[in-house]
């Protein structure tokens, strides 16, 4: 029964939270503690966080700024940004040595006018696949044709596709069919009746909950997933289990 | 019902929009409504400028579940001669309870006189008009501040409450300055703090829950209200009490 107030009833590990201010958008929170309070309000225990500057402006600088957000915070897991330059790859390799790297988020390719192509991103993608490090990639910022063509060349690279929206409703299914190692992050995928067919065709393990906070409010999609009629075990997988498994593959290397 | 409150979704569609994956399957819509306690959804078809074609589709859709769906009439100034007679037909013969307009599908801003026959009809009949508001040049909510005082018998609902800044601020300003302007919450931009802002600046009695079903899942959109940091009483007003008052149900 629906009540006037909501808190998650399964463990939640949010796969998509950005921290820090952007040049054109101030964040509603300034500190890890403020973010943790908002997470607690919805019953979110852990979050994978990236620095918004890393995605939008500079992967190198964003990653440096991310360090202070995760320092001493066991509930906040860092996700490092990447661009196709040798400097970025060197930074990631340095972070990887002490085991700090469990996932990567690609910078905004559209903002840079770069096609997501192997002749530009090949070195990065090859290294990620070899090290079994999963890649988060935005469907909102990357043409679906490029996603398909490029990721097909790296069949061992595990990916999480972000930003799927109702305008992608005719693309998501074919992409997941073409890319068996791809998962869909659900923060924006809210067309009526769109998630159950994905579960039927691809299984519950291909779906990952993320909030896209602070661009989006943290609670609505989480609330919605709790009312999709999923078995508790399946809900747990979407809300935390699948993300844990995706991140662990790098640790098990 | 949610916690004893009758829940009305004030923004929904009849029709198909295949490119966006929108399909008006009543069973799917009812399943989503039942999953979270939505009692009734208000629906309109905005895809036919003659009004009649879409209104007939809406009426047929509502007739299958008249206790769960409420039809709103749609007309367009692309076919100006049809507007007044079609509104009369839709309200008096098809039982439509309110009016939907969609200026984005026209070159005419909300304050253009071509819309006056719609506003005048609602004024004379004491009806609600819900309009899309947002970033499009024809749909800026600031126009409501000019139009609403001229037609005090009509109630104007800013669909999406302007959607994003600075249009949200315009919508809030219209609601604050015009007692017959209300704000509806659905949006694919689910920015944090928006529901809280609408309540704080316009008052909970001026805010209506809407989802854009079946383009968007009403579960996610109602989650905006139920996870907002506002009082339970504010949630009750937004979820249905305000809509019941506006629609006289």
Overview of this protein structure:
The complex is a heterodimer of chains A (253) and B (249). Helices cover 42% and strands 14% of the residues of chain A. Chain A is globular. With 253 residues, chain A is α/β, with parallel strands linked by helices. The longest helix of chain A is centred in the last third of the chain and has 20 residues, at 232-251. In chain A, the strands form two sheets. Chain A has a six-stranded parallel sheet with strand order 4-5-6-7-8-9. In chain A, strands 1-2-3 form a three-stranded parallel sheet. Chain B has 249 residues and is an alpha/beta fold. In chain B, 39% of the residues lie in helices and 15% in strands. Chain B contains nine helices and eight strands. Chain B has helices at residues 26-36, 52-64, 80-92, 116-125, 142-147, 167-177, 194-202, 218-226, 232-247, and strands at residues 8-13, 40-44, 69-74, 98-101, 128-132, 155-159, 181-184, 207-208. Chain B has an eight-stranded parallel sheet with strand order 1-2-3-4-5-6-7-8, with helices on both faces. In chain B, helix 1 (26-36) links the parallel strand 1 and strand 2 (40-44). The longest helix of chain B has 16 residues, at 232-247. The radius of gyration of chain B is 16 Å and the shape is globular. Chain B starts with 7 loop residues before the first strand and ends with a helix. The model of chain B has no long low-confidence stretch (mean pLDDT 97). The interface between A and B is large, with 35 and 42 residues.
Outline the biggest β-sheet of chain A: 6 strands, parallel
**Any idea what the shape of chain B is?**
globular
Q: pLDDT under 50 segments of chain A (min length 5)?
A: none
Average pLDDT for all residues of chain A? 94
Helix content of chain A: 40-55%
For the biggest β-sheet of chain A, the strand order reads 4-5-6-7-8-9
Q: How many distinct beta strands of chain A? A: 9
Strand content of chain A: 5-15%
The rounded Rg of chain A comes to: 17 Å
The ordered H/E elements of chain B are EHEHEHEHEHEHEHEHH
């Amino acid at each position: 029964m629906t009540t006037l107030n909501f808190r998650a009833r399964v463990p939640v590990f949010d796969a998509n939270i950005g921290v820090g201010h952007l040049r054109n958008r101030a964040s509603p929170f300034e500190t890890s503690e403020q973010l943790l309070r908002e997470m607690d309000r919805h019953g979110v225990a852990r979050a994978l966080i990236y620095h918004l500057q890393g995605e939008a402006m500079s992967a190198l600088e964003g990653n440096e700024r991310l360090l202070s957000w995760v320092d001493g915070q066991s509930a906040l897991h860092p996700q490092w940004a990447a661009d196709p330059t040798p400097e970025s790859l060197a930074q990631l390799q340095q972070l990887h040595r002490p085991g700090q790297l469990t996932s990567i988020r690609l910078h905004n390719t559209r903002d840079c006018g770069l096609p997501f192509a192997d002749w530009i991103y090949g070195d990065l993608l090859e290294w990620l696949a070899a090290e079994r490090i999963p890649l988060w990639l935005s469907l909102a910022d990357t043409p679906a044709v490029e996603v398909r063509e490029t990721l097909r060349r790296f069949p061992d690279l595990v990916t999480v596709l972000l930003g799927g929206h109702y305008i992608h409703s005719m693309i998501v299914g074919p992409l997941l069919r073409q890319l068996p190692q791809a998962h869909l992050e659900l923060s924006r995928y809210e067309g009526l009746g769109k998630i159950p067919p994905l579960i039927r065709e691809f299984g519950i393990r291909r779906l990952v909950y993320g909030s896209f906070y602070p661009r989006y409010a943290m609670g609505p999609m989480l609330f919605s997933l709790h009312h999709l009629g999923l078995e508790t075990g399946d809900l747990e997988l979407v809300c935390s289990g699948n993300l844990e498994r995706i991140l662990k593959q790098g640790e098990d290397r | 019902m949610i916690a004893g409150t009758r829940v009305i979704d004030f923004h929904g569609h009849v029709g198909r929009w295949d490119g966006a994956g929108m399909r008006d399957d009543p069973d799917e819509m009812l399943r989503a409504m039942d999953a979270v306690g939505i009692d009734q959804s208000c629906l309109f078809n905005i895809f036919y400028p003659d009004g009649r074609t879409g209104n007939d589709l809406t009426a047929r859709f509502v007739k299958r579940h008249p206790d769960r769906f409420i039809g709103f009439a749609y007309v367009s100034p692309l076919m100006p001669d049809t507007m007044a007679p079609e509104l009369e037909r839709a309200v008096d013969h098809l039982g439509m309870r309110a009016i939907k307009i969609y200026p984005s599908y026209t070159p005419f801003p909300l304050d253009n006189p071509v819309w006056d026959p719609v506003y005048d009809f609602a004024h004379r009949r004491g009806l609600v008009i819900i309009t899309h508001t947002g970033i499009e040049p024809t749909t800026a909510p600031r126009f409501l501040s000019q139009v609403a005082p001229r037609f005090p018998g009509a109630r104007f609902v800013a669909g999406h409450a302007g959607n994003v800044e600075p249009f949200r601020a315009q919508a809030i300003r219209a609601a604050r300055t015009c007692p017959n302007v209300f704000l509806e919450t659905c949006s694919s931009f689910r920015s944090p703090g928006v529901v809280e802002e609408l309540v704080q600046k316009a008052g909970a009695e001026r805010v209506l829950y809407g989802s854009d079903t079946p383009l968007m899942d009403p579960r996610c959109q109602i989650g905006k209200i139920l996870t907002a940091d506002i009082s339970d009483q504010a949630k009750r007003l937004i979820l249905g009490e305000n809509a019941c008052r506006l629609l006289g149900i």
